[in-house]
Amino acid sequence: MTPRDPDYAARVARGFAAQGFMALLGADLVSVAPGAVEIALPLRPELSQHHGYAHAGASWAIADTAAGFAAQTLMAASDGVLTVELKINLLAPAQGARLIARGRVERAGRRLTVARADVVAVAQDGRETAVALALGTFMTLPGLADAD
Amino acid sequence: MTPRDPDYAARVARGFAAQGFMALLGADLVSVAPGAVEIALPLRPELSQHHGYAHAGASWAIADTAAGFAAQTLMAASDGVLTVELKINLLAPAQGARLIARGRVERAGRRLTVARADVVAVAQDGRETAVALALGTFMTLPGLADAD
Amino acid sequence: MTPRDPDYAARVARGFAAQGFMALLGADLVSVAPGAVEIALPLRPELSQHHGYAHAGASWAIADTAAGFAAQTLMAASDGVLTVELKINLLAPAQGARLIARGRVERAGRRLTVARADVVAVAQDGRETAVALALGTFMTLPGLADAD
Amino acid sequence: MTPRDPDYAARVARGFAAQGFMALLGADLVSVAPGAVEIALPLRPELSQHHGYAHAGASWAIADTAAGFAAQTLMAASDGVLTVELKINLLAPAQGARLIARGRVERAGRRLTVARADVVAVAQDGRETAVALALGTFMTLPGLADAD
């Protein structure tokens, strides 16, 4: 997958920094490559649901952001990105030191991009457990580049 | 839909209060009825994505919580609830004074419940715009009542 | 919902008649209204899965067709329609005299339409049981009207 | 992934043979391995939608069957399998000599299994194009082994 905008990584970093919600959650942008974006989220009590695990909404939010920005890495410099729909399957309770969402483009179209995100929980000892799998559709917004 | 646990509303209120994530977002439990739960989320910059609208993760989180607790209103007093999967379609940008998620059970089974949630944005003048529609599957966890 | 093409019903009928797959299944177009299409499918052994009920693929196919054509009823005369994605939740075993899929537009956009379809099984005595609920995204294809 | 039933492949073959719907479509069971099942569907006009491509319902049906039987390969000999929900994203028009659905288990649980299926179209010259990607949930039915 070849990026059309050589500045794609800086563009994703600007878009990520402009998301108040990622800051509220405490998420970090880990890596950006053509068609692939990784986001980490250190776990803490404020992210919990009623059983004490991380709320699925936290997994969904970083999955959506990782998959959406992965889609944007393949778009033109002037294009913005929007989530059309995203489905997530929860595979295991989200617990450990942090979550990592790995977004990856499955098919990039002119108007619509299909992307997935795998969410893993990382324990203190570094071992990973798959906690969620998301699949969604993202729309190209010509002329609506993000964070402008 | 007849609740099996006469104390269903108090149980949902306890479960909601035990979710650190709902407090982090600033969400409120508005109403609880058999098979139906409503959650409100006042909008503020901390909930934004990169275009300034509310992040879809905020809509997803309250949709999931409203639909999941709607499912739990029809379960036995000792049953906990878990999200198996939830898909959301984003219909319009989420902006205004607050979001409201209305969860509703579509079919309650012994093990699995299918529920939907409609998310609307409410403007300062009270007018509502549909912003998202979610459909998901929730699992009954016998003996794992929430917030215990 | 006001149709932009006064000939919308005849257009859907032509599109339906052009689907070899609907004929293979034995499905009938029951009704067409602005934003709403109904399709019936008489059940027979050729539609079964391995437990003897109707295969979920039969429910999915009529749900997709009903929701997609419901989307098309609100499009311009020259517009074609394409399924972007569709999720289905199976609620109960599909058995009885026939299935009916009722497609309905949830939100019609310029490029994308979100539509749902409810699938019910109808017994010999006319009683209906909900068997599936589908939610999906459909794309407008300008200048690619169907069955031309 | 280790199968609990050494006879898993024959069991899937019996289940597949018992599906009238797969015969109606003309689908073939290509291969069965632990956690992975492949199904082929030769394309013909009877499978078409209104633009002449294969109907998405044909892709969905073989994706569901491949993913569901992939889930069953990891279940006990006495367990049946049921689709809870399945979402499909359509990536490209389905045309060519045949479709192949490759189902694969993402996570096998005691009650619920999450599986995906990739659908490719194969041209006369053997080249493959990705046409669909499906992600779904399957339920274990203890004591309800298929095709018995």
Instruction: Tell me the number of helical segments of chain A per DSSP (H or I, 4 or more residues long).
Output: 3
> What do we call the CATH homologous superfamily of chain A?
Hotdog Thioesterase
Strand runs of chain A, count: 6
> Oligomeric form of this entry?
homotetramer
N-to-C span of chain A: 25 Å
Main β-sheet description of chain A: 6 strands, antiparallel
The general outline of chain A is: elongated
* Cα radius of gyration of chain A in angstroms: 15 Å
CATH architecture assignment name of chain A: Roll
Q: Determine the strand fraction of chain A and express it as a percent band.
A: 35-45%
CATH class of chain A: Alpha Beta
Helix content of chain A: 10-25%
How many structural domains of chain A? 1
Low-confidence stretches of chain A: none
CATH level-3 fold name of chain A: Thiol Ester Dehydrase, Chain A
What class do helices, strands and sheet pairing of chain A give? alpha+beta
Q: Largest protein interface?
A: A-B, 40 and 40 residues
